[in-house]
Request: fold
Amino acid sequence: MEITTEKPYVIGLDMGGTNSIFGIVDQRGTIKAQTAIKTAAYPRIEDYVKAAAEALQPALDVVGGIENIRGMGIGAPNANYYTGNIEDAANLVWKGIVPVAALFEEALGIPVRVTNDANAAAMGEMTYGVARGMKNFIMITLGTGVGSGIVVDGKVVYGSDGFAGELGHVIVDHSPEARSCGCGRCGCLETYCSATGVARTAREFLSRSAEPSKLRELNPDDITSFDVYQAAEAGDDMAVRIFDYTGRILGAACADFAAFSSPEAFVFFGGLTKAGEYLMAPLRRAYEENILFVYRGKAKLLVSSLNGSEAAVLGASALGWE
Amino acid sequence: MEITTEKPYVIGLDMGGTNSIFGIVDQRGTIKAQTAIKTAAYPRIEDYVKAAAEALQPALDVVGGIENIRGMGIGAPNANYYTGNIEDAANLVWKGIVPVAALFEEALGIPVRVTNDANAAAMGEMTYGVARGMKNFIMITLGTGVGSGIVVDGKVVYGSDGFAGELGHVIVDHSPEARSCGCGRCGCLETYCSATGVARTAREFLSRSAEPSKLRELNPDDITSFDVYQAAEAGDDMAVRIFDYTGRILGAACADFAAFSSPEAFVFFGGLTKAGEYLMAPLRRAYEENILFVYRGKAKLLVSSLNGSEAAVLGASALGWE
Reply:
């Protein structure tokens, strides 16, 4: 994405169910000033926007005021790029259709774009991260769930309704043993390859055998993907195999995704990527084993270079340059 | 796609391994004149292009000459939209990289675009067919193999290398019993949902039980999808279940594809669509059963409206308007 503007900054808003974090960002992806408010403290969206505008003022002063801001981008759950609305977000206090872009445009007098977290992450990678200069790549976010942002020809794919790119809900297991998913169906990629999916795999592996493992010292219901990572680091065989299982499913799924858009790269982001080669080595192997010959050796499998705590704000801010 | 031009016609070339069919097409998708040459009769591509230009002359005279032609589109195996080349096509006499667009541009003095058959079919539907006016849809061609052309934001997705959109090679069965595919892997969609896939299913169903079926009157190795269709029409239970099995796999796969680009429609084209509701009813049912809630009830599942024998030429010609 080429950036040409007289106004040197954008605002990024990472809107979560609990906190809303605002950053003022320059063209290199440096956050020049930051502020935050509690999302859930404002039952009326109008009050939230007012509080946000007030909280932003000192941050705006740092960069010379709103006249130096080109635009604002918001990453929020169920945010629809086409309409500028948040639509029926389960994790937010505001119900139904919330015209968040229009309200911020009115309050701040600058263009505002919204999208969901994974699409914002893709924008962030394309603007400031490892996907800079790429026109075709697929962002995969590995957190509590699995999200995705698909970039084709330099633009995020929004599809007919603004909700394209839900690769976490591609079904990778059609068997009767497939895991049930929060979406109401079974066998979705995210039931295996999210942080919670890794914990489920750990519980399954523990219950299926009596093999010794450090993970047995924990209450099975409390096991997290980080516990599995620590066990792997301590040389625990089962923990290593849990990531192997996870990486192989994800790698095979990505090989299928390549048949869709033949990307230059897959970019992985989120807590699970901290597992490093425990996850990435089997992922790469499964990708190469499953990829169609015409795509073989083409796509890079990359881990995001953005600072985890800043990435969401940076990703949202990237929309502000559009 | 909006068509605004002083020049009212385009040339479409449907290049197959045996025959090359040329059509001169107007903006409504009417073929005004047609001609053909034998593809395999010209071991040198230069001679092929020369013969094509000569064969085209009488057809061009019908529409007032080359000055009334806006451009030419070629649908050919392994044709790369980005480069204008045919690359290592197994079914053509010319080996390696063949600069077919450049050669035709030189011979005819008009812009020439190339793409593969399934992408050409998508262009044809968008320009003259059931996808007219749509900006997001997925074309699925059900012939000897399964091909696809994916349209996002009004443009065919070509990806990083020109070869995006090979949904026939998405793996729908990862089990050890998955069918082997011509691509060297196992479990590809096209091993189940192509015309040859239907014939394989018939042989499997016949060998697995002793259930009576009209299909037993045929040599198993000679069974075609058309035989299965005729048996279904004659009330044969097994034949109906063969299409049911095929449609269910295809419907579930399309539900996954929706998670990628959230299309307005899927458009099915090719010999297998002649099976009509035997295929489409289970396809629709499986799609609805497998679709993620956010996409539910959104995409239409349509059968191409283009005349089968003209569709390939029309699809190719659609590229000529670009």
Chain A has a mean pLDDT of 95. Chain A touches chain B at residues 135-136, 150, 152-153, 155, 157-167, 169-172, 174-175, 183-185, 252, 255-257, 259-264, 290, 292-295, 298-299 (CB under 8 Å).
